[in-house]
Design a protein that fits this description.
The structure holds 3 protein chains of 3 kinds. Chain A contains 7 helices and 15 strands. Chain A is α/β, with parallel strands linked by helices. Chain A folds into 2 domains: 9-91, Elongation Factor Tu (Ef-tu), domain 3; 97-228, Nucleotide-binding domain of ferredoxin-NADP reductase (FNR) module (Rossmann fold), CATH 3.40.50.80. Classes of the chains: A alpha/beta, B alpha+beta, C alpha+beta. The interface between A and C is large, with 42 and 47 residues.
């Protein structure tokens, strides 16, 4: 058998966590030594293959978090614990962890974007290698019923400063203790933002544009902002061409780019 | 003094101006060697009023000709009409006497594939072959050839219309699923294309064989297959019961087209209402019934399995008529 | 002018003085060709009657040939030869009841007749599929390794081509060069492996002719300013382009593909994963889940393509992607010209520089 970069390995589903009707996390029996920010290509025969960011690592498994929006994800949602899927990776560059060591780190995520920064949070809060001196998490969801990783959010609340916001509480019966409104409006509620604050920003393109503007307005230097790019990736290894922006491939050089570079990456 | 019947038979018109006429020159297939324009100019300036009218059937009509000069006019145009007709394979026995008949009108054609990107055939060439089969003939018959179902020549308003088509050939291995063919067919044509398991399927019942999928395809996955024709019949304008023509036979070969054009005259000869000055083919078919028409016209023609006959079932448009 | 990167694919004949070339009459050349096609599949420019896009037009394109007389020596092909080593649709995996198997291919060696620009275009494919990101694409590799190149010369430039401007007008990366002459063929053998097929013929000095000057020479800007992205020049393309993708599918250096899983009919247990050519000009290329498309304007798509071909690719690999074959100009139904676009970009860059000074 030839050395095939597109060939995945069959891995077993060890556990499934249902966050919402649309979002689930799958724990996979995969020994992947990845870094926070990297992604894997997940493949199901008859359906296809998609990139999914890794939302958690352990020594024996990884976790991926999926929003059910397409052909592959809907088939993935039909799988049970013990079923197998094909996996290859990890791919892409990780977050620049060294740059956060001893610094004030602000992580901002929108919706499923939280899954992509979860390993970074875990790494910063639970590991000792890279320790920001102060960590803020600002995360926004559509409404309280769209919340992901509730347990983890509680855990992080105890260790860092966390603001959870929702766009709206309309139609909710239970009281909501967090913020209401767009994430961008809560940037000013984060304490201690300054030129040297390091910011990681993961979410939909429009949210990123608006928040970068707000951060710059709050004197955060552009080279201290990292944003993630979501692109149509078909191969994950710089061949299919879909995720290319100018001379960069989101799958190889991203998905996280420093804003100074990201600015010049015009589609 | 002048026999109007003879004038008309020889393609001269009886003008509203007493003592004047106009000559109608045939241009089979609507395509002409430019050198004949000099002759047409001479005719108009020497014998007519210096103007030329482009007819609805793609001929030239030179008005203002004095009936007194008719013989000179015939002499002046003899060589030209003989040459034009002989280029279609029609031999005029006595060109100096003018056209031998005018009932069967000039066979007109759209620009066709000599220029047009949509055209599936050389319409002028086929029109000229048809001219050879049906001219001269006194029975009134209008035939037009169009290069694709856009029908720019309005073949749907003729007794017989020929629509040039192709069978699109699809090579799945070349298809990149850009959907350009499918989107175009849905928006502009008959929505005959759809995707099944990453392969384009062509619904042959709906496909007009217009060839637009070939035009749209960036990889040549759809390419030109066999050239075929669709014959439509029974179209007409007029005061009684205008009607657009209907499909008569699909998927026919050029040979069948020519045979049917020839056979139509036998059918007309047998069934025409001779009490009228002229009768359109469609009215004759209405009277005899479609099956009589089909069986007589197709007699001794061996249709291939692909050549599919369709019943004429279009009543056309009626003006309100006093009871 | 950028340096053209060369990937050597044949053993250059060692004793050049001994064997410079030979001339064969038609019969003898066909005889040699007959021996070659016993060992190789030969793909060359061919006239395919009636297969042009428009009625009663032929298609000159790459296809299997069985005789030298089938080869069209003096016409540019509508499509490039890239489908030989990068099929339009290619099976990557076969799935059967949960088992995966790599797709197999026919292993026969293939000869492709190519012009200098198209030979240089293969460097772009090699770079993308064997180097980019440090990953090697095995499907490409195994097909590429079975390819031998025969050179076709260009006595004159074709309309709209600009290989000399792109530095892709010359090459010595070929096994055999064949020129059609009035009464036979002139042949130059660069690769020892092909010596055995040419046992007959008179020795002669045979040198391929390469284009030295383009009909319209172009200057390629070294770099561009980001302001070019917002320049008004792209608006014209939004109006004119119809997003048909012919420029991509005919291009010898467009490598993009998409991946699809298909179910094999009659057996729901079986499926295949295919890769299929993809075009950055066509809808859906830049579409994300949730219907977000970040390159909707055709002018933006044009910019994305053109700048990749002349700037962005070079930034990483040191040489231009566009080889100036002129096919995209020739196949565009809207008469949009790559050369014209490069010219405009260059003019804008010059104006920018002058303004800054």
């Amino acid at each position: 058998m030839m050395n095939n970069i597109y060939a995945g390995k069959a891995v077993k589903i060890l556990g499934i966590t249902k966050h919402t009707n649309m979002e689930r996390s799958f724990t996979l029996d995969a020994h992947i030594h990845g870094m926070p920010g990297q992604f894997v290509m997940v493949s199901l025969s008859h359906a296809g293959e998609i990139p999914i960011s890794i939302s958690g690592f352990s020594s024996t498994s990884i976790e991926i978090t999926v929003r059910n929006v397409g052909k592959v994800t809907s088939k993935l949602f039909q799988l049970k614990v013990g079923d197998k899927l094909h996996l290859r990776g990890p791919y892409g560059e990780s977050f620049p962890l060294e740059a956060f060591d001893g610094q004030h780190l602000l992580i901002i995520a929108g919706g499923t974007g939280l899954a992509a920064v979860k390993p970074l949070l875990e790494c910063c809060l639970d590991d000792d290698e890279y320790k920001p001196k102060k960590l803020n998490l600002l995360v926004g969801f559509k409404s309280p019923k769209h919340l992901l990783f509730k347990k983890e959010l509680d855990h992080w609340q105890k260790k860092g400063e966390v603001i959870v916001t929702v766009d709206t509480t309309e139609g909710e019966t239970e009281a909501w203790a967090g913020g209401i409104g767009f994430v961008v409006d809560f940037v000013k509620h984060v304490g201690g933002i300054g030129p040297e604050t390091k910011v990681v920003l993961v979410g939909p393109p429009l949210m990123i544009t608006n928040i970068v503007r707000e951060l710059v307005h709050n004197n955060v230097r552009e080279e201290n902002i990292w944003t993630s790019f979501e692109r149509h990736m078909k191969c994950g290894v710089g061949k299919c061409g879909h995720c290319r922006i100018r001379d960069k491939y989101v799958c190889l050089d991203g998905p996280v780019f420093n804003h100074v570079e990201a600015k010049s990456l015009i589609d | 003094m002048y026999n109007t019947k003879t004038l008309i038979k020889n393609a001269f018109r009886v003008s509203k101006v007493r003592g004047e006429s106009a000559i109608r020159l045939r241009v089979p297939g609507g395509h002409l060697q430019a050198k004949y324009l000099t002759v047409i100019q001479e005719l108009a300036e020497k014998f007519g009023n210096g103007t030329v009218h482009l007819t609805t059937r793609q001929g030239y009509e030179i008005p203002g000709i004095k009936l007194a000069q008719l013989e000179e006019v015939k002499e002046h145009m003899a060589e030209m009409i003989a040459q034009i007709e002989s280029s279609c394979g029609v031999i005029l026995e006595e060109p100096a006497k003018g056209y031998p008949s005018a009932g069967t009108r000039n066979v007109s054609a759209c620009i066709g594939n000599r220029v047009c990107r949509f055209a599936n055939m050389d319409t002028s060439a086929l029109a000229q072959k048809i001219e050879q089969v049906i001219y001269p003939n006194d029975y009134h018959l209008k035939v037009a050839v169009t290069g694709c179902p856009n029908d720019c020549i309005k073949a749907h308003m003729q007794d017989i219309g020929i629509i040039g088509s192709i069978v699109p050939e699809y090579d799945q291995d070349r298809c990149i699923l850009c959907e350009a063919c499918m989107d175009n067919c849905r928006k502009k044509i008959t929505n005959a294309l759809y995707i099944e398991n990453y392969r384009m399927i062509r619904d042959e019942e709906c496909c007009l064989q217009c060839g637009e999928c070939v035009l749209k395809c960036p990889t040549g996955a759809f390419s030109r297959g066999e050239k075929i024709y669709r014959i439509i019949i029974g179209g007409r304008t007029g005061k009684r019961n205008p009607r657009l023509a209907n499909t008569f036979i699909r998927n026919v070969s050029e040979k069948t087209v020519l045979e049917i054009c020839r056979n139509v005259y036998d059918f007309i000869h047998r069934h025409i209402d001779r009490s009228l000055p002229k009768e359109h083919l469609g009215y004759i078919i209405d009277r005899t019934g479609f099956s009589t028409f089909a069986s007589e016209v197709l007699e001794q023609i061996e249709l291939s399995p692909a050549e599919e006959v369709v019943e004429l079932n279009n009543p056309g448009y009626f003006y309100p008529k006093r009871k | 002018m950028t340096k053209v990167h060369k990937l050597r694919e044949c053993k250059i004949y060692k004793d050049r003085a001994k064997m410079e070339g030979l001339k064969l009459n038609c019969d003898k050349a066909e005889g040699a060709f007959d021996r070659i096609i016993e060992d190789y599949k030969v793909v060359a420019p061919k006239r395919i009657a009636g297969k042009g896009r428009f009625s009663d037009m032929d298609l000159v394109s790459y296809d299997m040939v069985e005789s030298l007389s089938d080869i069209v020596f003096n016409d540019r092909t509508y499509f490039s030869a890239k489908s030989v080593f990068f099929p339009i649709r290619e099976t990557m995996f076969n799935y059967d009841k949960g088992c995966v198997e790599d797709a197999r291919i026919e292993e026969k060696l293939t000869i492709i007749f190519l012009r200098a620009c198209d030979i240089n275009a293969i460097n772009i494919f090699d770079t993308m599929f064997l180097k980019n990101g440090g990953y090697q694409d095995c499907y490409y590799k195994r097909r590429r390794e079975s390819v031998k190149i025969f050179l076709l010369e260009c006595p004159r430039p074709f309309a709209d081509c600009f290989c000399a401007s792109m530095g892709t007008n010359k090459t010595d990366n070929y096994s055999v060069f064949i020129r059609k002459e009035e009464n036979g063929y002139a042949i130059r053998i660069n690769d020892e492996a092909f010596m055995k097929y040419f046992s007959e013929g008179a020795k002669a000095k045979v040198e391929p002719h390469f284009i030295e000057d383009d009909l319209g020479a172009l200057n390629i800007p070294d770099s561009i300013d980001c302001s070019l992205f917002r320049n008004k020049m792209w608006e014209e393309y939004s109006q004119r382009c119809i997003a048909c993708g012919r420029c991509n599918t005919s291009c010898p250096t467009c490598t993009c593909f998409t991946v699809q899983d298909i179910t094999i009919e009659d057996n729901m247990q079986k499926s295949e994963r295919w890769r299929i050519w993809s075009s950055c000009q066509v809808k859906n290329f830049s579409l994300l889940a949730g219907d977000h498309d970040f390159r909707i304007l055709k002018g933006d798509r044009m910019r994305y393509k053109v700048l990749h071909k002349i700037i962005d690719f070079r930034k990483t690999f040191g040489f231009n992607m566009c080889v100036g074959c002129g096919r995209c100009d020739q196949v565009c139904p809207e008469y949009i010209g790559m050369a014209k676009c490069i010219k405009k970009i260059n003019e804008i860059c010059i104006a920018d520089r002058e303004e800054k000074l």
